[in-house]
């Protein structure tokens, strides 16, 4: 009798012990980053783990097992002057150097935020795992190294060379597109060269930039407080246990991925959809010809559009038979009967509604993921960052049209709307992709929890580490072999030259 009770007790203890202390670091100011961080926290908290969540948007009331570490100071550094629609219409596309610099600022602020310092300086705060967002800098690897815990990178988009190099190797530019660019493989000769150039250029930018190293050096007191030596950033950056990718093959391409890459695209979508306000529900239910939902996302505000453009869009919408729901942050004058302006939108619930027939979007990665999740075709108006490539992908997959942001876009938008809604092939295509998206052995949330726990239970999952990480560039490229061949050829050449030179000289001597 005693033995079974002991076994039972042991099992119970094991189950209690299965609650791990996990830190989740999503410090970037921006709604989409918060949505992604919140999603990770939601799944892990529901699985019963103790979560410490570094976020610029802490909730007042959250689950009992979630502790919020407020880094809302990061909002002070938010470049509001450049991150608005008017600016994007008037200027050149955002350049990579600006993105890198801005991101470094956020990383630095986060590390020096008093609430974060407090954790580092308190050795009682121990963690079993740290999950950090990657955003154009490897600095967040420091969270794992300082706290002495295995860490997981979160890549917020489809896999691309900049993140894959951290867990395996940079993807081949001949057939994989840079995330900030436009255009998809197969590439023309010019595009292929440009992709290679981008990889070299961005590597150069990162190499030349000294501020990342300076910020990392400034973390020395944290390592000291924890009694740890500070390893070089280059060492810890490539030491993640795995990478969660906010991606899925239905959204991107079937690229080669290492074992340590786990695609969990769509995990941010809560299976419990947010409620739709009553008046909006009526608009949706009563739309005779279907609803077009129009939103430029959470960072870009439609209110920043030039007045002239707003007017031309309203005029064009008035000519449509469809109902239009436009997420717009201010009260608009002269709104036609079939257009409904809403300040805030329960986006997933609208996309889920059977009357919703089309989504006009900026093509952010979360929005494009949601369109495939709910099987709705889109018109993409890309504005910055990965939005161009997201929209190009959707167009190539056959469920989207691209319209570029311009003063005269209303006409082009109208043509695109009619094309998509009069030809059933767009909706059929997105439904097909939606099936592929949902047809997985486990939900992305379940995978997330499984692999996070797997890393903890296997102490950093070293068995998933790609051997490519430990091979220097010259060996991968066989530059040593090349050098050897060149050397042998040189020796042979010299020897041959000597033999031919010596012969006449010998003859000369004997004569
Ligand atoms: C690399 O990760 C492993 C597993 O998490 C850990 O044991 C090791 O200390 C890490 N190395 C460095 C330099 O942080
Ligand atoms: C990082 O932040 C600290 C404190 O806010 C500041 O003193 C320092 O200049 C910053 N470093 C860089 C490289 O931006």
From TrEMBL:
It is a single-pass membrane protein. Its EC number is 2.4.1.17. Residues 1-19 form the signal peptide. SUPFAM superfamilies: UDP-Glycosyltransferase/glycogen phosphorylase (SSF53756). The chain crosses the membrane at residues 477-500. It catalyses: glucuronate acceptor + UDP-alpha-D-glucuronate = acceptor beta-D-glucuronoside + UDP + H(+). InterPro entries: UDP-glycosyltransferase, UDP_glucos_trans, UDP_glycos_trans_CS. Belongs to the UDP-glycosyltransferase family. This is UDP-glucuronosyltransferase.
């Amino acid at each position: 009798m005693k033995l079974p009770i002991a076994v039972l007790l042991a099992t119970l203890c094991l189950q209690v012990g299965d609650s791990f202390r996990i830190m989740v670091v999503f410090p970037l100011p921006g709604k989409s980053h918060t949505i992604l961080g919140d999603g990770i926290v939601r799944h892990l908290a529901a699985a019963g783990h103790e979560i410490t969540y570094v976020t610029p948007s802490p909730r007042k009331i959250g689950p009992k097992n979630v502790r919020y570490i407020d880094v809302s100071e990061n909002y002070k550094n938010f470049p509001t002057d450049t991150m608005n629609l008017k600016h994007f219409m008037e200027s050149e596309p955002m350049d990579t150097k600006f993105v890198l610099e801005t991101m470094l600022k956020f990383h630095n602020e986060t590390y020096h935020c008093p609430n974060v310092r407090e954790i580092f300086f308190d050795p009682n705060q121990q963690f079993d795992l740290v999950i950090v967002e990657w955003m154009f800098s490897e600095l967040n690897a420091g969270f794992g190294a300082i706290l002495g815990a295995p860490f997981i990178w979160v890549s917020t988009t489809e896999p691309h060379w900049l993140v894959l190099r951290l867990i395996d190797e940079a993807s081949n530019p001949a057939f994989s597109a840079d995330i900030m660019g436009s255009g998809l493989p197969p590439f023309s000769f010019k595009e292929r060269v440009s992709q290679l150039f981008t990889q070299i250029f961005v590597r150069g930018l990162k190499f030349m930039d000294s501020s990342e190293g300076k910020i990392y050096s400034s973390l020395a007191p944290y390592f000291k407080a924890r009694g740890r030596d500070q390893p070089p950033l280059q060492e810890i950056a490539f030491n993640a246990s795995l990478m969660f990718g906010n991606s899925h093959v239905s959204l991107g391409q079937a690229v080669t991925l290492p074992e340590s890459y786990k695609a969990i695209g769509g995990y941010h979508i809560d299976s419990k959809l947010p409620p739709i306000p009553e008046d909006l529900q009526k608009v949706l239910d009563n739309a005779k010809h279907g609803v077009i939902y129009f939103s430029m996302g959470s960072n870009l505000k439609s209110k920043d559009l030039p007045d002239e453009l707003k007017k031309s869009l309203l005029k064009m919408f008035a000519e449509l038979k469809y109902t239009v729901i436009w997420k717009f942050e201010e009260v608009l004058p002269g709104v036609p009967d079939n257009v409904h302006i809403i300040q805030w939108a329960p986006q997933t619930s609208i996309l889920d509604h059977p009357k919703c027939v089309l989504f006009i979007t900026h093509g952010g990665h979360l929005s494009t993921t949601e369109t495939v999740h709910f099987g709705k075709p889109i018109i993409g108006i890309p504005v910055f960052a990965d939005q161009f490539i997201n929209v190009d992908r959707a167009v190539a997959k056959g469920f989207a049209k691209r319209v570029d942001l311009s003063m005269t876009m209303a006409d082009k938008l109208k043509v695109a709307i009619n094309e998509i809604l009069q030809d059933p092939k767009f909706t059929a295509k997105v439904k097909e992709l939606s099936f592929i998206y949902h047809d997985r052995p486990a939900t992305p949330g379940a995978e997330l929890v499984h692999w996070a726990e797997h890393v903890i239970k296997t102490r950093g999952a070293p068995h998933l580490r790609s051997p490519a990480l430990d091979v220097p560039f010259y060996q991968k490229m066989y530059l040593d072999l090349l050098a050897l061949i060149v050397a042998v050829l040189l020796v042979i050449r010299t020897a041959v030259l000597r033999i031919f030179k010596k012969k006449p000289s010998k003859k000369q001597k004997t004569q």
